[in-house]
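Late entry, evening session. Most of the bench is empty. Finally got around to the prediction I had been postponing all week. Sequence below, unchanged from the version circulated by S.P.
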Amino acid sequence: MEIVDIVKKHAPITGEQIAEMLNLTRPTIRSDLSVLVMLDYIDAKPKVGYFLGKRAISENENKIRLLDMKVGDVHSVPVVVRETTTIHDAVVTLFLENVGHLIVTDEEGRLAGIVSRKDLLKVTLGNASASTMPVSFIMTRRANVITVSPEDTVLEAARIIITHQIDSLPVVVPAPSGGEGEWNVVGRISKTNIIKMLLETLAEE
């Protein structure tokens, strides 16, 4: 791939020039050049030199497309409960929707917090009365919830998910009320969304 990178940056470029940049002799890289031409990563024209082949161009375009992809292009419908939802109903929703987190909103539909499978498990184990409690008692409150906007890149969302070791992120926009830190939930982006996007992009090659 070093050869492909050199061709990408300096095309058209001769085999001798490629070898010189790699501190090698032309015969040493002859077989590598032949394989790359055969695989269509690079192409060659007599008396002109080497330049990128169709496969390398396609992969480069896909890479650019992936880097530019926005959260708003791939996020899914949020799984939302109200602050007043009981823990029992929240547990039912969690398993019916097969998600790891529930997004909690207030009566105006603004982000209030988030409750995870772990939160619900901890409060219900050995606590028979917990099922009637509202989720607002155990949720992570808005100020501590990590969010992304539809205009953030999918790459940035993936970095946040990996860094904080979480399954998904609420996708939010400023609430019409205009209050500082008030957000309306428009979606959720998860590891599944990101993996699906990558697979679809690879399938297009």
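Two things to note before I forget:
The first helix runs from residue 2 to 10.
The longest strand covers residues 183-190.
Will write this up properly tomorrow.
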